[in-house]
Amino acid sequence: MGYAERSSIARNKAARRLFRLMEGKQTSLALAADLVSGREVAKIAGKIGNDICVLKTHCDAVSRFGQITGELKDLGKDLGFMILEDRKFADIGEISRRQLRFINSWADFVTAHAIAGKGTIEALGKNVVIVAEMTQSGSLTNAGYRKRAIQIGESLDSTGFVLNPANKTHVNQKFVVFSPGINFSSRGDSYGQTYVSPVTAIKNGTDVIIVGRGIYAAKNPAKKSKEYRKISWSALEKLRF
Ligand code: 5IU
């Protein structure tokens, strides 16, 4: 099923918008903008914003992030990408809801763990991407956890799920599957990150491929992002549509 069709069957607003955007721009690439300062994040977003459908942020790992939220929103509008704050909320619903207040003025959607149960996801509203699985080796997200996390998201019409691209996904087409842990040339890092190639990710059912160091740490991030974009979109066309 193509993204135009999936946008029409999705019940979640952010998912519908993202599917439409992907179809229009023909890109499944997201940048994990894990740079050190707000200035650098804004700079790379301006440079490669045309190639991505999602900019994934960690607002608490970037200095002076508060100063660029308006600029990122404007860039998203001009260049056509959505902003996913990878906050991974995990507290009780009431606290997660309070923490969200500082984020939802500029982010289109946020990530949350399912560990605290349905109440936390419910408290965060609809625009939530549930972390059902992680890419770090030794992660505690086993098959049973993943299944329960997906059930919560399905019952609440959440935007979608973060899943490990090394495993096959079995998720209803109404939901967006996001996968980090994607890199052409590296197999991992010194803390246990694991990577697969974009083509493996697409074969396994990923919709949005999230690339961080593979792009921003490259000599020429603009060129690299075009490579990731092209390889993943043509794999989608060949293998899935
Ligand atoms: N990220 C992961 N694995 C996960 C989840 C999130 O790597 O399971 I959930 C984040 C961490 C980082 C990005 O922001 O995705 C991956 O960056 P690199 O491509 O630089 O490894």
The name of the CATH topology is TIM Barrel
Count the strands?
8
Small molecules bound in the structure, each named once = 5-iodo-2'-deoxyuridine-5'-monophosphate
N-to-C SSE string, H for helix and E for strand: HHEHEHEHEHEHEEHEHH
Overview of this structure, please?
The protein has 241 residues and is of the alpha/beta class. The chain has a single domain (3-240), classed as TIM Barrel (Alpha-Beta Barrel), CATH 3.20.20.70. Helix content is 41%, strand content 15%. The protein is built from 10 helices and 8 strands. The protein has helices at 3-9, 13-25, 38-48, 69-79, 93-100, 118-123, 143-155, 198-203, 213-216, 221-239, and strands at residues 29-32, 54-57, 82-89, 109-113, 128-131, 160-162, 176-179, 208-211. It has an 8-stranded parallel β-barrel with strand order 1-2-3-4-5-6-7-8, surrounded by 5 helices. Helix 6 links the parallel strand 4 (109-113) and strand 5 (128-131). Helix 1 (3-9) packs antiparallel against helix 2 (13-25). The chain is globular. The model has no long low-confidence stretch (mean pLDDT 97). It binds 5-iodo-2'-deoxyuridine-5'-monophosphate. Residues 32, 34, 58, 86, 131, 134-135, 162, 180-181, 183, 193, 210-214 line the site of 5-iodo-2'-deoxyuridine-5'-monophosphate.
